[in-house]
Amino acid sequence: MSDQVSFGYKDVDASEKTALVGEVFSNVAAKYDIMNDAMSGGMHRLWKDRFVRRVKPQPGEAILDMAGGTGDIAFRMAARGADVTVSDINQEMLDVGIERAMERGIDGLVWSRQNAEELGFSSRTFDAYTIAFGIRNVTHIDRALAEAHRVLKHGGRFYCLEFSTTEWPGFKDVYDLYSHRLMPKLGKLIAGDEDSYRYLAESIRRFPRMPEFEGMIRAAGFARTKVEPILGGAVAIHSGWKL
């Protein structure tokens, strides 16, 4: 039997998902940051600030920011003196990030097209691995987590910022309505792409709940795992250490 994985609410052959997700992000790359502001009311900036405070990047540390696309997390970590490698499987997203870095006069970042499931870096290379709003789009999450563990040095830390399922009963209903009804319409209005944003909303619902994902992080070899819910779990910061 073929390996079936989720693509939004559909199940597709695993060999097809990477290309399908790639098409989504190629479609949304140019308007990605504008849409993030529109969809979150600007709150994604606060979530990313909080995320980077948890990572605690230090001057001279080697950090891999996977699915780093447009550079939002990398810019924040570089401002604290870290040596950041920005990786993404999608070249269009990287191109947007490179252009934004040039506009801001941010030098010193390394930009590298990479598949999270098959990283081209040597083992024990990085002090920290970050991934923000990207791991739910990976075809095989367990392989991406295993690769994150492999490329980290002993004592290295893993941090993931991702949408999840809120546990606040009243807010959950409102959030579900917004995700499935309004998010695709915003995508059509602002980015001219309803289908891609429908997929992004659906992919959140198919992503493992917080305890399950924490279990996957532990299964990849990480210790001292932790989950920090935001908005009752609508967004969560997951972390773990390679010990």
UniProtKB/TrEMBL annotation:
It is an enzyme of class 2 (transferase). This is Ubiquinone/menaquinone biosynthesis C-methyltransferase UbiE. Methyltransferase required for the conversion of demethylmenaquinol (DMKH2) to menaquinol (MKH2) and the conversion of 2-polyprenyl-6-methoxy-1,4-benzoquinol (DDMQH2) to 2-polyprenyl-3-methyl-6-methoxy-1,4-benzoquinol (DMQH2). It holds the Pfam family Ubie_methyltran. HAMAP family: MenG_UbiE_methyltr. Keywords: Menaquinone biosynthesis, Methyltransferase, S-adenosyl-L-methionine, Transferase, Ubiquinone, Ubiquinone biosynthesis. It catalyses: a 2-demethylmenaquinol + S-adenosyl-L-methionine = a menaquinol + S-adenosyl-L-homocysteine + H(+); a 2-methoxy-6-(all-trans-polyprenyl)benzene-1,4-diol + S-adenosyl-L-methionine = a 5-methoxy-2-methyl-3-(all-trans-polyprenyl)benzene-1,4-diol + S-adenosyl-L-homocysteine + H(+). GO terms for biological process: aerobic respiration; menaquinone biosynthetic process; methylation. The keyword S-adenosyl-L-methionine applies. Gene3D superfamilies: Vaccinia Virus protein VP39.
